[in-house]
Amino acid sequence: MGNSSVKGIKMIESIYPSEDGSSVFDKMPKLKAKLDREYAKGTIKFTETEEEPIDGDLDAVIDSAIKEVWCTYDPKGTGLMDKKAAEKFFKDALQVYAIRQGGKTEKDAIPKGVNSSDAMKQSIAILNKKGTGRTSQQEFEDFVRTYDIEEALGHFLGKTDGVVIDFTKAVFIDVSQFHTKQADIKPVYRDYPDD
Question: Residue 1's pLDDT band (boundaries 50, 70, 90)?
């Protein structure tokens, strides 16, 4: 299983669920047994729900999952994720990605020719946009909301040619506020989430 933790893998699955709804734990019985032991010890709390939100909006569920994942990588509650914890986050995400692709360890996900050390530095630089060496909870939430698992791991996967959009500088206008006969049109800006 490499350097990944069962709890980290479970948390990564909560923010980056598979498209078909399957779990990496279903594909690896030994990993599932470790997960069951962690549940029994109380190291991982079972928080999944069978109920779909009434309005069909999963934002509250996603917010809860992101906060839970944050607590995994900031266990002392400092509000900051250091470089070591950020590396752990990416290794756990690589582990999940590798298993979904039929591999067993995070190294199975990294194609030949990709320098994993450089990829880690580049990925952490994207996660920690301020370059302080410690990622804030807001930076982490923005990262998770902006990138799906393949985009988050792009430097490791050799897929870095995507378009990066900085939604913090994007402005959206509510065009329903415009009237055809209105002379002084004043746009009304809405606050859209970054997802």
Answer: very low
